[in-house]
Request: fold
Amino acid sequence: MPVSKTRQKKAIDKNVWEASLDRIRYIYDSFDKVQVSFSGGKDSTCVLNATLEVAREKGKLPLEVIFYDEEAIHPTTIDYVRRVSKNPDINLKWYCLEFKHRNACSNEEPWWYCWEKDKKDIWVRELPKEAITKHKGFRKGMTIPDFCKHFNPISDGRVALLTGIRTAESIRRYRIICARKEEAYINRRAEPRSNTYKCHPVYDWETEDVWIGVAKFGWDYNKTYDIVNQTKFHGKYLAQRVSPPFGEEPLGGLWLYAECFPEMWEKMLGRVKGVASAWRYAKTELYGNVKKPDHITWRDYVKVVLDSYPIGYRNDVKKRINHYINSHKSRTSQEIPQNNPGHPCSGTSWQFLARVATKGDFKGRQAHALPNFSLKACDQLGITLEEALIKFK
Reply:
């Protein structure tokens, strides 16, 4: 539910490095097992080095590190992960499994499977020599979050999985952390049927802090950032990401692969459906910058977009749209407005739902926009969210 007030940041008498070490010490004292989820990105680099510091201090080496290789990954990222794996203080488990991933390049095939055995001839890369290709409980088509629920046996006790989530990366992440009153960096509820708890010890680091850590402590890092920094992203450190390329959020960065890694890009073009189109038109209405014909309403346009999906996937998108509609109905009996910023109680509009339909929103990522839409609608009416909930309940 949207909130009208967000918890304010508070200054403390420690820098982010010292605060992170204290959090990780607490995690070691509170859990039976500690693991680091490592992507090769700058944020997981911070978590890795901070956790190593505490693991050495507590005599808990080697540190267990989990890396999920999603196949379409920069060669410089793979080089970095390989260097990390050779650290004698680290036990890195390199998983190359047939995970299910979002393909936002195409409505006809909105999912793809990395390392799919029957598509070996079109893999973006050769299988690395370190690859773990089997794991108890894994089934082809699992997502990484689903697999994580079954990763650690119950006999391991309570397991802390440390991730590199930082609130500076997005308002969605900021709200996740701010929703908790105490020990906000620890998810106090494990996933259903799981004994693993996600922990975010570097959540309050700014992007500048990350690179200060690299410079001050001499950490190794992913040299992909050096390459990206030579493009139009020079100096734009928050915009420099090393995430896999085909999802809804990274889609606009496909040009980086074409410009910076041409040999890999040539293979990516044949890996999933729609890559070439997304490369050209990711910033247009075809891929989320929605612009409807003038002669129809946003509600009618939602139906037009839904009809572009094959039946099976169409039903999945309908479920996501119905989720937003039902959430709106739980807050007010009024109709959903046509245009943004939507209804003051929910932030929902048919224009927003058209964006959901266009993107597919299979992971529910568009929901982060609703609180802002709600507050904008309240501002236009000159009322608070609390007043809106009373007036339009």
Residues 190 and 197 are 5 Å apart (CA to CA). The first helix runs from residue 16 to 30. The two ends are 14 Å apart (CA to CA).
